């Protein structure tokens, strides 16, 4: 099965952020299995462009660091 990365909106440290999902995986934590995603967070939106567009354009740059998040934190898939 081939998996192409996908972009998503997620809840990360109490903020709504955009990220690219690299992989999904299952990890045993104690007696429970946790379904997790390895993500690369995008930058926060460009504030000047966000204000100039009255909040319509959220321009973000690709991230360079990886984080692991529970899949339940993914709010939506972004096209």
Global outline: elongated
Low-confidence stretches: none
Largest sheet: 5 strands, antiparallel
* Intertermini distance: 21 Å
Identify the quaternary structure here: single chain
Percent of residues in beta strands? over 45%
Number of helices: 1
Order of helices and strands: EEEHEE
Strands of the biggest beta sheet: in what spatial order? 4-3-2-1-5
Structural class: mainly beta
The total strand number stands at: 5
Average pLDDT level: 92
Helix content: under 10%
Radius of gyration using CA atoms only: 14 Å
What does this protein structure show overall?
The structure is a single chain. By secondary structure, the protein is mainly beta. It is 8% helix and 53% strand. It contains one helix and five strands, in the order E-E-E-H-E-E. It has one helix spanning 47-52, and strands spanning 6-12, 15-29, 32-41, 66-70, 74-78. A five-stranded antiparallel β-sheet has the order 4-3-2-1-5, with no helix packed on it. A hairpin with a 2-residue loop joins strand 1 (6-12) and strand 2. It is elongated. It starts with 5 loop residues before the first strand and ends with a strand.
